[in-house]
Design goal:
heterodimer, A: 319 residues, alpha/beta, Rossmann fold, 4-stranded antiparallel β-sheet, 10 helices, 12 strands, globular, B: 346 residues
């Protein structure tokens, strides 16, 4: 059974100019020990999905429809009080390791300890200390550095500390929002390796959100490609990278220069993502699609299985 | 302190420039002094400084696309600004079109500025939000007094907007930057750089702020503009895959030093320096079936205030031996046109 099953999730933002349709009809599953990659450009709604899962949307963000079934329980109707029991113990989140994800005036160890104590108030102070040391060791930081402040950490160490914090209450699902971005390529590779190791060792389920397809290719078994608030293609990572069906996925994969292989002129997808206040009718990709047909402008395509089992795509080309 | 580190050491000049030389730098160095407190000044005489760029030499050929790659803190942006004299060098020489421009005053530089331009990373910050597109692009023309009439200014601006495919230009002339998308803004920045028909452009991470699907078209546009204007460009990028596809040559920098310099195929496909090898091994590959074979090196880039003695990479190098900590390896040509600064090859 899936750890997490999201069904027809629709999250919109209320603004003075109307609803921003940031995520619509999102459906996916995450099995135990599996990593799902949520890929797409900025503004495609991938972070909105992540924040919806934990119900920590910014002001104006409202889940308007759908279900988020975590370990058999739908999270959407839960109250704030009930959600607090799910957060961190059930689902935790690793934020992008920029300066602002850690509080600059508290020691790193105390901040990780706080995550433990908030969700498990009965733990004694000495136990907390011990667990912080263990967590730091798990993520590859010398436990004595618990007494350092965030500014004394390098970028890579800060990201490691945030991973330690996410693991503080033994979650079964970890959501990672752009964990490697803003880091140098070598440090990024270190962090991704750490996350893969932790996932295997602790049997974690993971949702990795990234604009970088190559990071997802290296880390995830399953991939959901998002465009303008919708999942356009979903399935096994190998199947999607080897045989992308949706014209957007094809364009996105081609837009990534590979370091292997001969020098070629880079290709791009002309145009730009639409305004989500007023998305195009029919298929949201139709203004940029090289294969656009009449039907694309009128009818919104549904996600349907095509080719390999479990590989779904929403495109009229295949119907 | 090892501040007097082999100043005399002239690192062999690195010329494989095609069709004449536009730019040459010799032993260029930029040390930023650190501010000190009053007590520190009294108690110690040691000047601490950030060694952003340290004894770098290279040359740039006419029409060449030259990539500077490396991690953040490697000094690539400082080097890009040094060659344009936007930052004053601590020592070393800069030759532009054969002329020594190291000591020129800003007034003497002004006519040369026509020939050298820069494109910045963030098109949201590099365009003045209170100016209309026409004025942003026309500013270099006005500063250099190159257009006689207002009609001529508008004509030139329209022409360059068409070149960068911000069309129809009439529709964009009187807009403000915030009315444009990220890709369009970067096109405007490219237009501003090319309106004076420069022979040399520095582009500092010009696409790293843009979305993946738009990146390629801006990169292609820049390559086309460089070719069309037969200009040379220094393309600063942390993305080696991108650098490989567009650059003729790549220089890999680490803590203010050039570690390896050669054609982009040589550097990426047959890297010689252990640092270049580590960098390339760390680049993620967009293919779920290719599993990483090589190990990722540990650690992060050390502080440029106190770089390691000898070879700067030795603290992270899997092949470091005794000589690496005592002797700094010079950048030498180990194969035709392939320069490496590593004791493994000397």
């Amino acid at each position: 059974m899936a750890v997490l099953s999201v069904e027809e999730l629709t999250t919109n933002y209320r603004t003075l100019r109307g609803w921003v349709r940031a995520a619509e009809g999102i459906t996916f599953q995450v099995a135990p020990g599996e990593a799902l990659g949520l890929a797409g450009e900025s503004g495609c709604g991938k972070s909105t999905v992540a924040l919806s899962l934990l119900k920590i949307l910014p002001a104006g963000g409202i889940i308007r429809k759908g279900k988020i079934v975590f370990q058999g329980q739908d999270l959407v109707p839960l109250s704030e009080h009930e959600m607090r029991k799910i957060r961190w113990k059930g689902i935790s989140i690793i934020f992008q390791g920029a300066m602002n994800a850690l509080n600059p005036v508290f020691k790193v160890g105390d901040q990780i300890g706080e995550a433990i104590k908030t969700h498990d108030p009965k733990v004694s102070n000495s136990d907390v200390k011990e667990r912080v040391s263990k967590l730091l060791e798990t993520v590859g930081i010398e436990p004595s550095r618990a007494n350092n402040y965030p500014h004394e950490f390098s970028g890579g160490m800060r990201q490691r500390a945030l991973i330690a914090m996410a693991l503080a209450s033994d979650p079964s699902l970890v959501v990672a929002d752009e964990p490697g971005t803003a880091l140098d390529v070598i440090v990024q590779a270190q962090i991704l390796r750490l996350m893969r190791d932790l996932k295997d060792k602790l049997g974690l389920s993971m949702i990795l959100i990234s604009h970088d397809l190559s990071i997802i290719a290296e880390t995830c078994e399953k991939v959901a490609i998002m465009y303008a608030g919708r999942i356009v293609e979903y399935g096994n990572a190998v199947s999607i990278f080897k045989d992308p069906k949706h014209p957007y996925t094809q364009g996105l994969i081609k837009a990534f220069p590979s370091i292997n292989g001969p020098r070629v002129r880079m290709t791009s997808i002309p145009g730009q993502p639409p305004d989500l206040l007023n998305p195009p009718s029919g298929c949201r990709f139709n203004p940029r699609c090289p294969y656009v047909m009449d039907v694309c402008k009128r009818v919104e395509p549904m996600l349907e299985e095509h080719g390999e089992r479990g590989h779904t795509v929403s495109c009229h080309l295949y119907h | 302190m090892n501040s007097e580190r082999k100043d005399s050491q002239i690192e062999s000049s690195t010329d494989t420039a095609v069709g004449g030389e536009v730019l040459r730098v010799e032993n260029l160095r930029k040390w930023y002094p650190l501010r000190k407190g009053f007590m520190e000044t009294l108690l110690s005489k040691v000047e601490a400084s950030v060694k952003a760029v340290d004894l770098v030499s290279f040359s740039l050929g006419k029409g060449e696309i030259f990539a500077l790659a490396g991690e953040s803190g490697s000094g690539k942006t400082t080097l890009g600004k040094l060659v344009l004299r936007l930052v004053e060098p601590t020592s070393g020489k800069i030759f532009f079109q054969g002329k020594d421009i190291t000591e020129l005053s800003q007034r003497e530089l002004k006519p040369l500025r026509r020939e050298m331009q820069i494109i910045f990373q963030d098109p949201f910050e590099s365009l003045n939000p209170r100016m209309i597109i026409k004025e942003i692009i026309a500013e270099p023309l006005r500063v250099q007094h190159l257009a006689k009439t207002e009609e001529e200014v508008e004509e030139r601006v329209k022409q360059v907007l068409t070149e960068v495919e911000v069309v129809p230009p009439e529709e964009f002339l009187y807009r403000f930057p915030h009315e444009l998308s990220g890709g369009q803004r970067q096109r405007v920045a490219v237009a501003r750089a090319f309106i004076l028909n420069p022979s040399f452009v520095v582009a500092d991470e010009p696409v790293s702020m843009l979305d993946v699907s738009i990146r390629a078209e801006i990169v292609n546009l820049m390559v086309d503009m460089v070719r069309k204007h037969s200009a040379s460009i220094i393309f600063i990028s942390h993305d080696l895959a991108l650098a490989k596809h567009i650059a003729d040559r790549i220089a890999i920098m680490y803590l203010g030093k050039v570690m390896e310099l050669s054609t982009s195929e040589n550097v990426v496909d047959l890297p010689l320096h252990p640092y270049t090898q580590a960098l390339i091994a760390a680049v993620p590959i967009p293919d779920p079936e290719s599993k990483r074979t090589k190990d990722v090196i540990s650690g992060e880039i050390p502080s440029p205030v106190n770089p390691p003695s000898g070879c700067r990479f030795r603290t992270r190098c899997p092949y470091a031996h005794e000589r690496c900590s005592t002797e700094e390896p010079p950048l030498v040509e180990v194969e035709k046109g392939h320069f490496v600064a590593c004791h493994l090859y000397t």
